[in-house]
Amino acid sequence: MQMLDKFPMEGGQKDPKQRIIPFLPGRLILFRRSHIRDVAVKRLIPIDEYCKALIQLPPYISQCEEVLQFFETRPDDLTPPKE
User: Fold this and answer.
1) ∠ CA 42-30-49 to the nearest 5 degrees?
2) PX domain: from which residue to which, for each copy (predicted)?
3) What is the pTM of this model?
4) How many domains does the chain have?
């Protein structure tokens, strides 16, 4: 949402045909804990496509602070849970 506010033209707010910022795949509602892995696996391809499209945007967008924060490594990324 921050990117759409920062780049309204590229986000298609004035003219949806001019949108170049990709749509972030929406959240899915989880009903049971056993479905968490299934949902994560189903979301891998759309999220991968989103990330690839995001980094292929012009540098003023793909290298903006919001994108860099989105891809920033967090401590949990370096030592993920073993489960």
Assistant:
1) 30
2) 1-78
3) 0.72
4) 1
Is 77 within a domain? no
Distances (CA, A) of 81 to 5, 38, 76, 77, 78: 35, 17, 8, 9, 10
> Domain of 52?
2-23+33-72
pLDDT at residue number 54: 95
For residue 28, what are its two tokens? 């899915």
62 compared with 28, residue with greater pLDDT: 62
Per-residue buried b or exposed e for 1-35, using 16+ beta carbons within 10 Å of the residue's own CB:
eebeeebeebbbeeeeeebebbeeeeeeeeeeeee
Which run of H or of E encompasses 49? helix 36-55
Place of tokens 């968490």: 36
The CATH code of the domain that includes 68 is 3.30.1520.10
